[in-house]
C-alpha cells in the first residue's frame, strides 16, 4: 500500500515540476498567438481611400489611387451601430414624390 502511495505522490510531484518549469514557455506561446491574431485582425480591417481628381471631385475608393495624394479612412462603424452590406434591404418601400 505504501508503494502505491509513493507512486501516486511521485507522479503528482513530477507533473507539478513539469508544469512549474514550462509555465514561461506556455505564457510566451500564448502572447505570441495573441500578437499574431491581433496582426491578422488589423490586416483584415477594410480601409477606404479619399482623394480628389484633377477637376477637384472627391472620390472614395477601396484601392488607393496611383500617383495621387490620398487620405486613408478607417471603415469602422461607431459603437452601437450595425452595418449591413445592402442598406435598402431592410428599409420599407418609401412613397414616391
UniProtKB/TrEMBL annotation:
Q: Where is the composition biased (Basic and acidic residues)?
A: 71-91
Q: Residue limits of the DUF4124 domain?
A: 38-77
Q: Where is this region: Disordered?
A: 60-97
Superkingdom to which the source organism belongs: Bacteria
Which Pfam families does its entry note?
A: DUF4124 (PF13511)
Q: Quote the protein name from its UniProt record.
A: DUF4124 domain-containing protein
Amino acid at each position: 500500500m505504501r508503494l502505491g502511495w509513493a507512486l501516486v505522490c511521485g507522479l503528482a510531484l513530477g507533473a507539478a515540476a513539469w508544469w512549474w518549469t514550462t509555465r514561461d514557455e506556455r505564457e510566451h506561446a500564448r502572447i505570441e498567438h495573441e500578437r499574431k491574431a491581433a496582426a491578422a485582425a488589423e490586416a483584415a480591417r477594410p480601409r477606404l481611400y479619399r482623394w480628389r481628381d484633377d477637376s477637384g471631385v472627391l472620390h472614395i475608393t477601396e484601392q488607393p489611387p496611383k500617383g495621387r495624394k490620398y487620405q486613408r479612412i478607417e471603415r469602422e462603424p461607431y459603437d452601437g451601430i450595425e452595418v449591413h452590406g445592402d442598406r435598402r434591404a431592410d428599409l420599407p418601400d418609401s412613397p414616391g414624390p
